[in-house]
Amino acid sequence: MSENKAKVGNVKSRVKLVANPPPWPDGKRCAVAFTFDEDAESILHLAHHKNASNLVTSMSMLQYGPRVATPRILTLYREFGLKQTFFIPGWCIEKYPNLVDAILRDGHEIGHHGYIHEHPNELSYDREEYWLCRAIDVFERYTGSRPIGYRAPSYRFSRNTLPLLLKHGFRYDASLFGDDVPYLLSNGNSWLVELSTHYAMEDWAHYMVARDLNYMMPIKAPSHAIEVYRSEFDSAWRHGALWITVWHPFLSGRLARLEAISDLIEYMHEKGGVWFATLGEIASHIEKLVETGAWSPRVEVFPQYPTPIPELENGL
Length: 316
Known about the structure:
Strands 1, 2, 3, 10 and 11 form a 5-stranded parallel sheet that branches. This protein has one domain (28-301): Glycoside hydrolase/deacetylase (TIM Barrel, Alpha-Beta Barrel). 45% of the residues lie in helices and 14% in strands. The chain is of the alpha/beta class and 316 residues long.
C-alpha cells in the first residue's frame, strides 16, 4: 500500500504538464515576479466620480496603499534584495510623485496601467489611444523614460489594445490569462511578449471588502491566500513555468498579509532554483531566446474574432 502511494505521489514530479517551458537563466527552475498594481484612489474616482470625496472611509482604505503599504513593501524587498515591477496609473503617478521616486530609487520597474484606471474594452479605438498616450506622457515626464510594459486596468484588454501597444513601442503585456509560460501576441506583422497570470494569483478574491465598490469577499486569514499562492508556485517550480502575482498594496500590504508574503519569499529561497525578476527582465530574456532561436514560444495572432461569430447572427 505504501509503495503504491509513493508511486502515485511521484506522478506530479514525473509527468510533463508544460509541453514547452523556456530555458530560464542559469538553469533556474522557474521565474517569479511579485507585481503590485498601485491603483490608490483612482478606482474610487472612476466608480463614483461625483461623490468620491464623500466616501471618506473607502478613500482612506485605498490611500493606505501609497501612504503606508508601498513604503513597507519596498522595505521588505530591500531585505531580500529583490527588484520587482509596479504597475501605476498615470493619474496616480501625478498624485504620488515621491512614491514613484522611491520605487525607482530602489531599482524597481514601473509599468503602464492606464491613466485613471479606465476600462479600455468599453472605449473606442481613438479614446483608448487618448488615455494610453496621456499616461505615456505622464510616465515620460515623471520617470524620464517611456514604459515598455503594460497591464490593462481590471484586465480589460480590448480588440484594439494590441495594435495600440505595438504602435506605441511596448515590448510586453501582462494582462491576459492564456498560458503558464510566456507567449507572443502578434498582429501578423510584429509581436510583443505576453506574460500572463490568472485569478488565483490575484489578491482581490482573497481580501477585498469594499461596500462602495460592490465587492464583498469573505474575510480570510493570510495563511489561506498564501496556501493558494504557494501551491501555484510549487507547480510552476516543478514544471518550469512562470509565476506572476497581481497584488495591490492597500490589500496585500496590510501587516499580517505582508508578513505572510515574507514567509513565502523565504520558502522560495529555501526551495532554490528560482529566478526572481522584473517583468521587463523576463520579457528581455524571452526576446533574446526568440531572436537567437534558442526557444520558440506559442504565437497568438490577433484579432481572433474581427466580428461577432455568424452562427449566432439570428439568435438561438
